[in-house]
Fold:
Amino acid sequence: MDGDDQFEAAREAAAELRRAGAIPPLLLAGVGYGGSYRSPKNRRARDYTPTRPADEPMETGGAPAFLEFLQEELLPALGRRYEIKPGDIAIVGHSLGSLFGLYALSAPPSPFRRHLISSPSIWWDNRSVLALLAAAAGRPRTPARAFFSVGADDTPSMCGDLELLERQLAAKPLPNLEHVFVRLEGKDHYSALPAAFRAGLRWLYS
Structure:
């Protein structure tokens, strides 16, 4: 997610891990808009949010349609160009992109089997994504892995929300989900991204 701004961090993390022999070869695809976070072309607020608050003036709540686009259009198009293992596709995101990753985790059938969830924006719409994940706890699902992380020096709200998610998954686990929670020492919301990508890819593909 956020390929316009975050793809290089993902590429560097994957290249470093490949040189160390820590992960297998990966095909990386950055999903973007042709414009950075503040560009009028960018539609991350629309596409990465699973719900639309009643008082939100922006167009939001488009995550269901965006997941359908990824599953029905983008991934098949990539599959026509490259050799892809349909049962072994990962999703990587940070901040609002990780909110979408959480939504995808809650919404089977999903094409993703590995989830790198870095500093997720759980706060969105009064933490509505936690209710979506709680509802998913009662549904059967294909085995999957998830790496959850936050910078230890991020805001108390971000760190606290990840702890809420950790407690919820302990109380209401998602079936067939192997997961880990990591606090990245000395990292804040921005500096955590490269470290999360390195640690997450290493764990997901170990």
